[in-house]
Design goal:
six-stranded mixed sheet; globular; cytoplasm; cytoskeleton; six-stranded parallel sheet; 573 residues; DML1/Misato tubulin domain-containing protein; 3 domains; Rossmann fold; alpha/beta; 14 helices
Length: 573
């Protein structure tokens, strides 16, 4: 077994994670459905890589994500931090009296379950009744309709648990309590600087992670998804430092994600300086404790080329996180593919690689660049005919911000992941047909990478019920791109689109230079140069001159790794 432990830190990271685990749960359900699409019954995708088998207190076997989720107290909405599979325990106060003074109790108001969570509860109750009646099903008197659920979610999601259909282990959910501040105030590096170390939080978090690691036979790596736009970034950095000390030889693949609210325009120069310094410090610190870092999160997903066939509301994290989660699902597939022999072309998957091999492939080449760009085509276009093959590379658009376009880079290294590819007539292509199509696309391309690794799977991305209605009216039931729009609907959801073909690409490229240069330049301009406006701010965050110069050198090395002749890296030296 080559297990992966996933860690989600911060609100938007958990929104992404909620969609990600919904995809996995949907795949498991379709694989177990005797009447389901055979394409999902793939034995070569090992879900045990990211899931664990356990047992509840009642002796029932459980199958839950190998996950640690960290977020604010109260971020779970109507869901208990103990999960739903295990006994809740009593909320009554203890009868043991150790304090004779006045006692006052402050309890937050319980959140009501939305229609979707009510339907899950109702479904579980119906299953229990069926099992208790010798298999005879009982019709619910108040069945909740799928159309009402989709409408409910589209109109209002407040918590990431509002649309989660997954059971979590009690060790998976950690709420950061005692901060006594509004979520919107938790918006910069300084405000979260000591959160990990205070009140034994660090020990508690590390103990939860240790629970999952110690039951692994042979862990292949950690997948961190970190909301790095605010105070959760320093918490994640301190946690990552602890992880790197305790699990020295276990690689960390880190997605630094940004929600739509983090890109809001600021009204004053002071706010701009704070944000620019946060971005530089956050990126420098996080990148110090991982093998590869992938920035994810566009200022406006709706106006990007990524949304050509999508209808996104930028202000809605339920929408944006769904796109980013689909991309992360795609990039994680090679880590759970079973290595195959000479008959790989006849199989359902191709291109298995573990986390360490993946990182070495992209970051361990001659360039030694540890910052990767994530591109996606959602849904991916048809792969038949010369024009269609070329359109795939054109349709792959970055989810990484501040990336240069049309960069000719002879040292670029790429990893392409395709699954559920469709050919002419809407039929699903075999793995060997996908390989031929991708090779043909690169042969026709005007610029090619130095090296490209391909992973492919026949199973598409399944669209679970609690997925937002973000597909445009040119997307068909199985993700095929239609020649004419479907009338009467501008947005289509899970009741209309059941699965889609996906293409994702991770690349090491000079195109990341603007992202790196902006952070290095801002650190020098606002934090290091004599008389700069951010000196006192950074001191209040706990950073002295030596630490800032170390951060500057870290960023300079990243710039030099991508472009040894960069003016900005030599200037900073």
């Amino acid at each position: 077994m080559r297990e992966i432990v996933t860690v989600q830190v911060g609100s938007f990271a958990n929104f992404i994670g909620s969609h990600f685990w919904n995809f996995q749960d949907e795949m498991l359900g379709l694989a177990a459905d005797p009447y389901g699409d055979p394409v999902f019954k793939i034995q070569s995708l090992n879900m045990d890589v990211i899931y664990r088998t356990g047992e509840t207190h009642q002796g029932t076997t459980s199958y839950t994500p190998r996950l640690l989720s960290i977020d604010f107290q109260g971020s779970l909405g109507s869901v208990s931090s103990k999960g739903t599979l295990y006994s809740e325990g009593s909320n009554e106060p203890s009868e043991v009296v150790t304090w004779a003074g006045h006692v006052s109790t402050h309890a937050s108001e319980l959140q009501n379950k939305n229609l979707f969570l009510q339907s899950l509860y109702q479904e579980e109750q119906d299953v229990a009744l069926t099992n208790g009646n010798n298999g005879e099903a009982k019709d619910s008197q108040h069945e909740i309709q799928d159309t009402d659920i989709v409408r409910c979610l589209d109109e209002g999601v407040q918590f990431w648990t509002d649309f989660s259909k997954v059971h979590y282990h009690p060790q998976s959910l950690y709420e950061v309590n005692g901060l006594w501040m509004d979520v919107k105030q938790f918006d910069n590096y300084g405000i979260g600087r000591d959160v990990f170390m205070e009140n034994l939080r660090g020990e508690e978090i590390c103990d939860k992670l240790r629970f999952f690691v110690e039951e692994c036979d042979h862990i292949q790596g950690f997948q961190f998804i970190v909301d790095d736009s605010g105070g959760f970034s320093p918490l994640a950095a301190d946690f990552l430092e602890s992880v790197s000390d305790e699990y020295t030889n276990t690689p960390v693949l880190l997605y630094a994600v940004r929600g739509p609210s983090s890109h809001m325009s600021l009204s004053s120069r002071k706010q701009t300086v704070v944000r620019d310094l946060h971005d530089a410090v956050s990126f420098s610190r996080l990148s110090s404790f991982c093998k590869m870092i992938v920035p994810v999160g566009l200022p406006s997903l709706s106006r990007s080329k990524t949304s050509t066939f999508l209808n996104i509301k930028d202000e809605n994290p339920y929408h944006c996180s769904a796109v980013y989660a689909a991309a992360l699902h795609s990039t994680s597939l090679p880590f759970r593919m079973e290595p195959l022999g000479p008959t790989a072309d006849l199989s359902d998957v191709f291109g298995a690689v573990d986390v360490n091999g993946f990182v070495q492939m992209l970051a361990g080449q001659s360039r030694q660049n540890m910052v990767a760009i994530l591109d996606v085509a959602m849904p991916s276009p048809c792969l038949s005919g010369k024009q269609d093959k070329q359109s795939l590379l054109r349709n792959l658009q970055p989810l990484t911000p501040e990336v240069a376009e049309d960069v000719d880079d002879l040292q670029a290294v790429e990893s392409m992941i395709m699954h559920g590819a469709i050919g002419s007539g809407g039929h699903r292509l075999s793995v060997s047909e996908v390989k031929n199509a991708i090779h043909g696309a690169y042969e026709c391309a005007t610029t090619r990478p130095m090296f490209c690794h391909l992973s492919a799977a026949r199973c598409p991305l399944p669209i679970p019920l609690p997925f937002p209605s973000i597909f445009g009216n040119l997307v068909g039931q199985h993700g095929e791109l239609l020649g004419s729009p479907i009338l009467g609907s501008s947005s289509r959801g899970s009741l209309d689109v059941h699965s889609i073909p996906m293409a994702a690409r991770m690349r090491s490229s000079r195109a990341i230079m603007p992202f790196l240069e902006n952070r290095l330049a801002n650190l020098h301009k606002f934090g290091i140069e004599r008389g700069c406006p951010g000196t006192e701010l950074l001191r209040s965050w706990g950073f002295g001159k030596d630490e800032l110069e170390d951060m500057g050198e870290t960023l300079s090395k990243m710039v030099r790794a991508v472009d040894p002749h960069s003016d900005i890296s030599s200037d900073s030296d």
